[in-house]
Amino acid sequence: MFKKYRSIILLLGVLAILLSASPVFAHLMLIEPVEEGRVRVAFDDGSANRHAEVVVYDENENEIARGDVDGEGYFNYDPQEAELLVADDGFGHRAEYVAGEETQQALQRGPVVAGVLFGFAFIAGLFQYRIQKKNSNVQEESGN
Questions:
Q1: How many CB atoms sit inside 10 A of residue 40's CB?
Q2: Per-residue pLDDT tens for 4-49?
Q3: Distance in angstroms (rounded) separating the CA atoms of residues 20 and 24
C-alpha cells in the first residue's frame, strides 16, 4: 500500500515540514506616502529599499519624472501632476502607488502559501491518479 501512495505521502510530508517551520519568505516592496510630494520605498518588514528607481507618471501615463531613492529609501516628486509612481529595484521587486490613495497592504502569507501548496498537492494527486490508471490498464492488457 505504501508503494501505491508513496509520492502523495512524500508530498504531504514536505508540506507539513514547510508549514510547521518558521518560514522566511521573499518580501513585498511597497511605496509608502510620507507627505505630499515625498514617498518611501520599503519592504513589508519596514526596511528601506536603497536600490529602487522611481518613475512618476501623469494622468495620461506620460513619464514626468524619474530618479533613484536616497540611502533611506525616500524619493521626492512634484505632486501637482503626479498620478502614478512605479518603483523597480532591478532585483525583481516592483511596486506601484496611485497618488492620493492609501498604501497597499501586504498579503497575509499563511493563506497564500497554503493555497499554493494545496494547488501543488492537487496537481501531484492528479498525476499520481493518471499514472495508477495507466499502470492498471497496462496490467489488464497484459493479463488478457
A1: 20
A2: 677 777 777 777 766 655 444 457 889 999 999 999 999 988 899 9
A3: 12
* Residue 87: all three cell numbers together: 518603483
Q: What is the band of 116 on the pLDDT scale with cuts at 50, 70, 90? A: confident
Mean pLDDT of the chain: 82
CATH class of 29-98: mainly beta
Find cell 505521502 and name the residue. Answer: 9
Report the alpha-carbon distance of residue 43 to residue 70 in Å, rounded: 15
